[in-house]
Amino acid sequence: MMGSYRSVKDGKVEFYEICQIRQEGETLMMRIKHFHGDLKGWEEKDDTVEFPLVKIEKEAAYFEGWTIKKTSQDEIVMYVNVGSEGQVQEIEFKYKRKSL
Predict the structure, then answer these.
(1) Which residues 6+ apart lie within 8 Å of 7 measured at CB?
(2) How would you class 66 by CB atoms within 10 Å of its CB: exposed for 0-12, middle for 13-18, buried for 19 or more?
(3) Residues facing 94 on adjacent strands
């Protein structure tokens, strides 16, 4: 499964993320690649940020530093730990399915 995210501030794209969740052996791995607004990569050419699966429940998937919870039929909430050691902050992202 893959997806993308775009962070916009004051009408300008700050950065993009391309995300992939794929099976590796008997578990899942979430990988993210970041790009500045001009599409120059944050990580080195072949590097990604990886979040190994920790646990799955009926309505939630827990990756190391990243949680995805289904809160209704059309909504999910993601909790992401950002920052470096000693200064980690949890950020909440709410997503709602749009009707076509």
Answers:
(1) 13, 14, 15, 16
(2) buried
(3) 77
Q: Domain ranges in the chain?
A: 2-96
Q: What string of H, E and C letters represents the secondary structure of 15-62?
A: EEEEEEEEEECCEEEEEEEEEECCCCECCCCCCCEEEEEEEEECCEEE
Q: Is 90 helix (H, G, I), strand (E, B) or coil?
A: strand
pLDDT in tens, 69-93: 999 999 999 999 988 778 889 999 9
3-state SS assignment for residue 87: coil
Q: What is the pTM of this model?
A: 0.81
Residue 9: name the closest of 42, 32, 41, 37 by CA: 37
Q: In angstroms, rounded to a whole number, what is the distance separating the alpha carbons of residues 66 and 71?
A: 16
